[in-house]
């Protein structure tokens, strides 16, 4: 990636782009797309996982698909720890092999 510098400052810093959390938004978008594509559930980052209408079998399948997509192993403890879809996305970002 090419970096542009201006008076000792990277252009992205001058524009404030270094403060934008693009990775997290990308993770949220990817997770929401994965859930919608495979489970036909249109959720938001604020949707509580307990209100997601995913059955226990769906949650197991989602865990498998998350591992395939993000390289992060998910089990019931993770679902218990992450109250919302957004929190699950944060967990994925923090534990991703890509990070």
From TrEMBL:
It comes from the Bacteria. Residues 18-96 form the Carrier domain. InterPro entries: ACP-like_sf, PP-bd_ACP. PROSITE patterns: CARRIER (PS50075). Pfam families: PP-binding. SUPFAM superfamilies: ACP-like. This is Acyl carrier protein. The lineage of its organism: Bacteria, Bacillati, Actinomycetota, Actinomycetes, Mycobacteriales.
